[in-house]
Design a protein that fits this description.
Largest sheet of chain A: 7 strands, mixed
Oligomer: homodimer
CATH superfamily of the largest domain in chain A: Medium-chain alcohol dehydrogenases, catalytic domain
Number of helices of chain A: 11
Order of helices and strands of chain A: EEEHEEEEHHEHEHEHEHEEEHEHHEHE
Distance between the termini of chain A: 15 Å
Amino acid sequence: MRAWTISEPGGRDKLIQVDCPIPIPEKEELLIEVKAAGVNRTDVLTRQNRSLNEPYPILGVEISGVVVENKSEFPSILPGTRVAGLVNHGGYAEYVTIPADRVIVLPDSVSFIEGAGIPEVFLTAYQTLYWLGGLQRKETVLIHAGASGVGTAAIQLARHLSDATIFTTASRKEKLVQTKRLGADFSINYKEADFEEVIDRETGGYGVDVILDFIGASYWEKNLASAALDARWILIGTLGGSTVNYVSISSIMSKRLTLRGTLLTPRTDNYKAALTKEFEKKAFHLIKDRVIRPLIYSTVPFDEVPEAHRQMENNENTGKIIITLED
Amino acid sequence: MRAWTISEPGGRDKLIQVDCPIPIPEKEELLIEVKAAGVNRTDVLTRQNRSLNEPYPILGVEISGVVVENKSEFPSILPGTRVAGLVNHGGYAEYVTIPADRVIVLPDSVSFIEGAGIPEVFLTAYQTLYWLGGLQRKETVLIHAGASGVGTAAIQLARHLSDATIFTTASRKEKLVQTKRLGADFSINYKEADFEEVIDRETGGYGVDVILDFIGASYWEKNLASAALDARWILIGTLGGSTVNYVSISSIMSKRLTLRGTLLTPRTDNYKAALTKEFEKKAFHLIKDRVIRPLIYSTVPFDEVPEAHRQMENNENTGKIIITLED
């Protein structure tokens, strides 16, 4: 089968398409014929990771496709079933194996392209809003990078699962319009307004109960100022830098803040399975009924993976970049 | 009645004993004849707090004593009942009022002096270890300032409620001996050894699941190095400074840490009542049976409150400083 790996860690020129054997599913696993694969920032980081040794992995952590073989004890997942899910690696390939307890069965209303755009962003959004952030009904949430993959998913979940008051930040006009359309109450152009001032004014000084922080260092003080008493501040990205040069522990104590760092990809198989199961139960009906939907920015043919990475590294995308293997 | 307040915010010379009316209990409150009052760092901070306006409060947030009057719907708390509990202020006085749902009834095996040493340290230790830190049975915990009031309480709770592996730090020899005796597995003299190296060695590189951090800035990097994957790091004091000049968000993310700032005193009455109730149910039998006990450093007569503050400000104490009103 065809698959994408790297010749060595580095730039996009290190991406290589190789021919390798179709993987053999182990017990509890499915073999999937991949129809589409989501592109994620973690793929770029893996590509660049100089601590990796040979043999280098096949890239890609989320896919949609059709079940070819079922070695698990879930007899209902018959060959031919349309599914999507998170894999630990190996997504940029014609075939991949996946633990059976980690797939979402796709309804006919959801295409493979949309399906490949669901697992990473919606599971991350669900995990950060609910498992880590403990978002309660009618609470107030600040979602940075609202037009990003996880941002768009989080806005929709916070709107339709929690009836939250949603503040979001973005820069370009079309992103602001889009986040509004997805359900944000306040879409703030961070180049034109101080989001912490908007939050202070609109919440009457209360602040936000949950922050999804993809930005990190450059917004540290503004996020701190925006946090309500007992707020949960989820550290999920460092687009604005990782190093904060002034952190006041007293401020964290007096606001009784909870800060939580997280990465989804390195979580255990059991964690991902439990998260997938809860998401399917609590939220997937909204996708099935097309109340909420993955936002697709572009589809890139399988042979053009370097172009997909280029788009991601240039932050061009609003929504997901999807690699397609369909004919 | 006699009570201690301040002439104005400032040093110990601003402490003044005054004569004022006995407070009148409202609905759901008890009137207590105070027999002993615990001295806490928050009392010193209140004394120094220049944002306070007149009339200045009577100092003191924890007491033991005898019920004089009961205006609540708990008929079992008869006049004459021996109790201890947290008050919002007013503890350094001959009488104080307290919500009835916030007292612990003292068994005969516990003296008033010991009783006044229980609420703040044991409730704080219980809250930080369990409500905020989520300490599980057999997990590993690092308790800084192990010879402090909360430290000694936390060591005993972690030992007898959770069978945890306990690392603790202190400086002087007698403090190290004492923390060992209370149940710490490893009492580390932070002046002679790097605690993060001891933890790394003794846990085989795993680290600790929960950190009770009274120190703050000066131990930031060492605490980070000591934290296990998914650790909960509770920020509860800043004895080593509040300002951290280098914080790596990426490290917090890759270790998936939870950092929680907390202060007990400003919590709501309902929170304190619920915490008191759970502590009484889950842990108080250990105090009653004298398996665990509050550690009393000194008793200071009511007329000598400035001396009690002097001991606290000089960090002289191992365990609680108690003001006594008994004859």
